[in-house]
Amino acid sequence: MSIQSSGSWIAGAMAASQSSLGGIFDALTSGNDGSVSSFLGQASGYANTFASITQNTVTSATNFYAQIAANNQQTQQQQQLMDALAQLQAQQSMVQPQNTLDPYIYFSNGSSLDTTNNILTMPDGSQIDTTTGLPYVDPADLVDLGGGSYLNSKTNIITLSNGTQIDAVTGLKESQVTSTSSSGS
User: Fold this and answer.
1) Helix (H, G, I), strand (E, B) or coil at 29
2) CA 175 to CA 145: how far, in whole Å?
3) For position 182, what pLDDT does the model report?
4) Helix (H) or strand (E) holding 146
5) CA 153, 156, 159, 160: dihedral to nearest 10 degrees?
6) String of b and e for 44-57 (b: at least 16 CB within 10 Å)?
7) pLDDT reported for residue 177
8) Contact 121, 114 (CB under 8 A)
9) Which pLDDT tens digit goes with each residue over 86-118?
């Protein structure tokens, strides 16, 4: 390496340093009246500039590393979730149902039990909900009358919110219809 090329390198570095440092070398070489107060005033300005540069660097690095940590954590959580789902699917495929009921069980008296919907159908066609023990009414046969009252369109019985049942055809209470029909026979 020759002296001329090293000299041009130093001159280029000096020019770059002067422009990048905001002319700090200019302040030290020119524009300074030589007084201590002038030097200290300029030095404090440059110190503030360097502190700002340092603070910005630290802030940028902190944000960068926080973003990397958040991305790593999200990746780990996604992997844990995928592992848990794969393990659950593997366990579910290993479990085979045992002692399952037939969908329908037929009894000797002519009744049948729908084990899927829990409905017992009697020989006369009436149905009982086996989970509650109450007569089963197909939801498609019910008409909501508001206020908790409903009409069973299959039997034409109106059930009021207090439980009173009225025959929609005759207008009589259900207990009266039963007693009238049994006494009239």
Assistant:
1) helix
2) 21
3) 42
4) strand 142-146
5) 100
6) eeeeeeeeeeeeee
7) 45
8) yes
9) 998 888 777 666 777 888 999 999 999 999 899
